[in-house]
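Fold this complex.
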Amino acid sequence: MADPLSKTAVEHVAKLARLRLDEQQLAAYRTQLASVLQHIATLEELDVDVVEPMAHPLDVTNRTADDVVSPPMDLDALLANAPATEGGYLAVPKVLEDQGG
Amino acid sequence: MSSPATIASTRLKIGLEIHVELATRSKMFTRTANVAHPDHFDAAPNTLVDPVVAALPGALPVLNRRAIEMSIMVGLALDCRIASFSKWDRKNYFYPDLPKGYQISQYDLPLCADGALTLPRPDGTVKRVGITRCHLEEDTGKLGHELPGGLHYDGSLVDLNRAGTPLLEIVTEPDLEDADDTVSFAKELRSICRFLGVTEGIMQRGHMRFEPNINVIIQTSDGHEYATPVVEVKNLNSFRAVKGAIDYERDRQVAAWREDGLVMGPGAKSTRGWDDTRGVTVLQREKEDAHDYRYFPDPDLVPVVVDDAWRETIAASIPELPMKRRARYVSEYGLSPADAVTLTDDPRLCDFYDTAVIATAAATPDLSGPAGLAVAKLLLNAGAKRANETDRAIHELGIGPEQVAQLIALREANEVGSTAADELFGHLCQTDEAARAVAEREGLLQVRDDDALDAWVDAAIAAQPQAADDFAAGKDAAAGRLVGEVMKRSQGKADAKAVRGKLEERLR
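Structure:
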């Protein structure tokens, strides 16, 4: 049996996914995620040394398009989907200098 | 803690990450126009967006084949191994410039790896810089705080035009040891990318962004060696900033080490930004989980397989690179290194030059000296002068490579004088006609007709009796005034050599 998933780990994953969880949800997800990890641990028991890693479930490669331009979507339609706009821009609350990428 | 011993020497250790926006016509994973392509540089905000870019539900990515080919061109130019199999991964994080909530990138199987670029230094030595990998990803949108018209907005304004632009990330080994080599490398890489035609390389537009990883190896007088913690300086978009950030970090890191003695180790790496106005780097606050990207293979995209045939086709499309051209111009044509650099600054000028050289060699096979030298002299004198005056590039003045060859042929045959040649160059910028036709019409061909020359020489002797006496008495310097007089009377059209012959005939 693998180590049960810590509460802190669940909180960390929730934060990365921008989810705010209450104590009840934390406990529920902790149990569910632990069983997922348990399943992975079971899979890890398999000897896959001779198996090629699978990059994609479909046995298909090189689905590419020619480099030609097609029209953009209607600007008004785009802006209509945004919570707020300003001078053709999508307006969002001020972002601090914690650049993600 | 203070340092235990005095510092005997310091040595910089620098690796570079370079982001190159590829100038495909359409985006990386959808066919809406790419803002890094010259046709769309100044598109209004959010006008290069479609459902894939905006991440509307159900929108699916389709890979741009040209972006793959451009990346492979760069990889081959940097002597990389091209992966026969590569795939796409999602890098997950939340940020308003990233509508999907993930960036499509390549995590463990990059398109190109294990290359090198060997730079010649001005002192004749070379510097080899290892290339770790080049992988393809998509650029993000842009965040601003200024409304059209310059009004400040108290929030963040998102422009998604740049979102989805193909972005090639090139990572070097930490082989660089000073700011000058690093800047030379950065400039050469930009030049290579421009000659390959994969980017316009306009730094102010962010077509190339440089991120140096910098630390300092400190040797103390007691024989110990200390490596300061690595600092990554983000998003530099000028060569001046690259140099400034490296020089600043060297001093700052040594001072910091004296102060706290901290050395490289897990968790010691930090990220800084460059303040261009103050010329300093500034610590950027990062959340501790900022690098927890949870990469996983993107199920929406199938892998890319590059077989030998495709790779060879791409390899065959690679033009002669700028470094090789410069070497050829110096060794084969006898150009100065500085002139060779000028001619290889812009790939279009360089191609114009090469075409003109070939045309010149064909038009005047018995040219006295290399055609490359004659063309370079013409372009860098008559051409550069007009380019400066009109604020245009030499290859955009209007004169064609064939006309350059024709002009040089006329000059070589001494059918036009040097002043007339310069004037003819100017006329050829305005017309597509052949150089001889223009020279005839504009009266720029040298006159070698005996009667005409005799008349001018007679008049010159009459007008400059003292000079004529001096020349007759053996003072060679006096010939200048007489020839000048003939040129004045002939409006520059007299063949100076023939005039000189006639003066000797007449006066000696």
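Chain A touches chain B at residues 12, 15-16, 18, 55-58, 60-73, 75, 78-79, 81, 86-101 (CB under 8 Å).
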